[in-house]
Fold this protein.
Amino acid sequence: MAVLEISGISKSFTTHLSLGRTRVLNGVDLTVEAGEVFGLLGANGAGKTTTLKTAVGLLRPEQGSVRLFGMPITDVRARARLGFLPEQPYFYDYLTGREFLDFYARLCGIAPSRRAARVAEMLARVGLEDRADRPLRKFSKGMVQRVGLAQALINEPDLVILDEPMSGLDPIGRREFRDIILELRRHGKTVLFSSHILADAEAICDRVAILRGGKVAACGRLDSMLSDRVRFWEATLSRVDPAALGVPHEKVWQRGERVAVRIQSADHVDALIEEVRRLGGTLRSLVRHRRTLEDLFLGEVGYEAPEKPKTPAPEMPPIPERRG
Amino acid sequence: MMIGTRLVVGGLLVALLGTGAWAQAILERWQSGREIGGQLMYLPNGRYLKVASFGYAPLLADLIYLWSIQYYGTYDREVRYDIVEHVYVDVIGELDPLYSDAFLMGSLILSVEARAPERALEILDIGMERNPEDWILPFEAGFVAYNQLRDFERAAGYYKRCAAIPGAHPVARRFHAEMFNRMGDKQTSYAKWLEVYETAEDDFVRDVAYSHVHDLRIEIDVEALQAAVEIYRENHGSYPASLKALVAAGLIQALAVDPEGESYTYDPSTGEVGSQSKYRLWRR
Amino acid sequence: MDKTLAIAANTFREAIRDRVLYLLLGFALLMIGSSIFLSLLTVGSREKIIIDLGLSAISLFGVLTAIFIGVGLVFKEIDRKTIYTIVTKPVGRAQFILGKYLGLVMTLSVNLVVMTIGFYLLLAYEGAAYARLLPAVGLTLLELIVVTALAILFSSFSTPILSALLTLGAYLVGQLSWSLRLLQDRLDPGIGRAVCEFFYWVLPNLWRFNIRAEVTHAVPVPPAEVGLAVVYGLAYAALLVFIACLCFERRDFK
């Protein structure tokens, strides 16, 4: 059952001096199914935030429609099951964390008898229970993000929409956020978030969509979009002359004694190890490269890598061997 | 900051202050002769100012009033009296028609400072029209008419108007009665004073009224008797021997006694009628 | 309704923290207090000066407060994006605007009460604490209710500076709409008169809330007139807030 259906939405904005209009969204179609974690990816300015804002009703699309749980977004009942955290949120900084959440609990129509308990529960969930009585103006960025998540979850929404939730967080914060999202999925909630940190998306999303040019350029299950086929293997060798290797390879770089080579086929891996032993060299590392999300992303957004120089990399002075 | 920089900055500061003060002092000397308050005459008509005041007209009236008092209150320079009506009637009077103080002040300036009592009364007339319930305006007008114009009839009219206003000071009625006396119409004055006496509610008023009634009665009687004596002389060629002769001659009905019960005195040689009882009021 | 009140209470809390409020309140009390000294300069009724200055201060600073705080109210929310998380909750946009408006009216009422208390303390000292002045203060509150509605309306679609100018302009014109009648009389019958009539009804007739001159001079004002002025004020303000809600309903938050 589709929780969120965005069909063919277009949106343009007038430029600053009202001299023209820029088309930001040009017919975006997106469907988020119940119980999944959906990642919306795209370069800066691709329209991720615009899409999410249209999904929650902050913007009205010029064309197309948005339906939440089968209802239009303007319906209050739809919003009762929705939680939203905007990008770089800013809240009333004179309220304490507790007062802040109590205010939002009231807005969600939670009965007075249950409010205090729900607020305490949310504070505990995001790990702010012991700092809840400080005014928000004294919160660090990570704490603001967490209290923001708390307000998004305060009404136990079935769909949670997050706009760049992990931007500006340190690795600990990012990890915690990821865990919370996964926990939400475990409880059967649906999460839609936008990001340009691919590692996060790769780690937790079930499905992703990549926005380019105001349209969805690619969309689907992550594991099917990234083929499991290994692209290549990369081995770092020392004291081996690559030319002497009897295995088809491509030299990637050479620094003094060390050289990195790529081999395309898995079948040649064993042969490579043999060859290195035969030549009396050392295999320092062997890494398997799958097609990453980054590859997909760059490819989809039309990233052209600059031309590799034809001349080989300059010879670097030998790195002294480590003692002991 | 280094000591050198500090000196420079300090010096600059002193120089700026000095220049400013010097310029101010010179301007003060040049401009002190000019009439700053005279700008009152350039105030636009109150009806336009009312618009410009955006609903704060009474406050503006107050401020202009205070300004005008400062202007007319100084004695160290010439002030203009030809603008009094403009200031108090056209400007303040339009901004706040119920502001009696303005009419009073205007009339005061005109009657006392400018010695133009007619103009003062004109201002008060306008004030009375706009504030028919304010007794102080006709009261003041009565005083101006009495004291400066010596127009007792007009004064009487003002005092009558004043006395008719509920809450007016009761003395207005007494002044009204007295004005007839000053006009020479003792009979009417007597009648009015008698009314005051009979309707007096406290001893002081009763006492004052009695004094007037007493003295007027004597004056009226003495005059009447004196006139009768003269007629007797006309008819008979000589003064009568006594006042009783007047009764016999049919010139008076009966011989009156003064309010204290004493009979009136008569000197047959001079024909002068007098009173035994003293007048109660000093000016007699 | 509870949601609207929650927003109103929050708005009140926010407005109370605004330093501009206290600055203006301070100036108002200063102006009221200075009336004692000013009244020493007068010849004649000292009371009149004190009463005029006091009532004018309450009105003037009430309006300035309404404008200064009111125009920032909605704009700040949009500019700082605090509104994003509110409008996406199950709260109607009209409830938001209404809550903001009520919160502001509460703030202004408290402000008015403080100024009035200061005023009456001064009057009591001078022996002039007349009860007849209270209806003037009451109608001033209505004037503020209308001006606040104007501020909210303009603030829901334009920047603070522009809203402030528009609201101030509307206030000034509202004080003078009686002169439209005078203008009308001087014009020849036709389109000119119709235009005057139109503007007379559309613009807020704020001078109807001004009975300061009457109470100063103890001229009695019929209670029926005061009552109708109250009804007019509330109806006009409600209309403005309604329009503000409609504007807000259709708004995009970039």
Summary: Residues 137 and 291 of chain A are 44 Å apart (CA to CA).
